[in-house]
Amino acid sequence: MTARQPFDSVVPGWWQQLVRSQRREVRRILAELVATRGLMPLLMKARNGGQWTLAEREEILLHLRRMAHLSPYLVALLLPGSVFFLPVYAWWLDRRRLNRLD
Description:
Blueprint (H helix, E strand, L loop, with lengths): L3 H7 L2 H23 L3 H9 L6 H25 L3 H20 L1
Helix pairs in contact: 2-4, 4-5
């Protein structure tokens, strides 16, 4: 037996599932942010007078796509009062999914 088991028996199962899913999403967001670490040097290359190669352009597009997938998460978490807008945000995401299936 570990020291964690008595706590797990006290906490409801739905709460444990909520905490597990939140931790999973935090790990996913952090992994995506770490994957975009090389973006700034690539963007600054053109600013400093260099030229992007075709491979560098493709890498920039990949980084921008990764960031675009994260932006809804970050906007929902950074705005003041964003916790209160989470139900509206969930409704909006569901509405977008339904429109794409038509």
